[in-house]
Amino acid sequence: MSYEELFNLKSNPFRLTPAINSSEIIWAGFPEIKSQFESRIKRTLKISNSSLILNWGEYGSGKTHAARFFGKKEELEKLSREVERKVPFFVLITLPKGKSPIDDFFTSIIDKVDLTDLRVKFKDSRENIFEFIDVIGDNVFINNVTTLFFNDEVNETLVRRYLYGSTNAEDTRNLVAYGIQRNLNPNTDYDQLLDIIFSC
């Protein structure tokens, strides 16, 4: 039967994909599931070494909608206030399905990182961040790469080119001044770099 016959509607009024605009994302029903998400997020905020929440489920089960709903600034601020913690850094990443999943996963995270915003947020505590990187990282090269994210003396375009592996000879010469003498290796460097970035 058609929508018109069933519901007196000319077409399906519901979106086929989750909304992207945060003002359009609402939570309707399923109070127990909502409560479980809130509890998990609040628990993560309370534990200082928790840095990642993985959300998985069947196709069409609402994973993306839930991620976008709980990634809304006002939702994160509300949950943070309830546990008296800072608002967490949120990034929505879908697992890649290509031939190079490690490269694709790394790229999808780097694509979502706003270097300008990061540098503004950490401007007043830049020296503390550099000290923190040195304390938690045991790889000098990875520590040097991590500082690029927060060092506003380094051109953002140069940092992006480096992270995407598209630097030229002049870029390489410029990066040597910051202790970076080689390109990132997907097999050994990506996970260590992401680990320190998420910790920061």
Tell me about the biggest sheet?
Answer: none
Classify the beta-strand content into a percent band.
Answer: under 5%
- Unreliably modeled segments: none
What is the helix content? 40-55%
List the helices and strands and how they pair.
Layout: H1 3-7, H2 31-46, H3 63-70, H4 73-83, H5 101-112, H6 115-121, H7 126-136, H8 140-150, H9 156-163, H10 169-176, H11 190-199
Helix pairs in contact: 2-4, 7-8, 8-11
Report on this model:
The chain is an all-alpha fold. It has 2 domains: 1-92, no CATH class; 98-200, no CATH class. Helix content is 54%, strand content 0%. The longest helix is centred in the N-terminal third of the chain and has 16 residues, at 31-46. The N and C termini lie far apart (55 Å).
Features of the shown structure:
2 domains; 11 helices; single chain; mainly alpha; 200 residues
Summarize this, please?
The protein has 200 residues and is mainly alpha-helical. The protein has helices spanning 3-7, 31-46, 63-70, 73-83, 101-112, 115-121, 126-136, 140-150, 156-163, 169-176, 190-199. It has eleven helices and no strands.
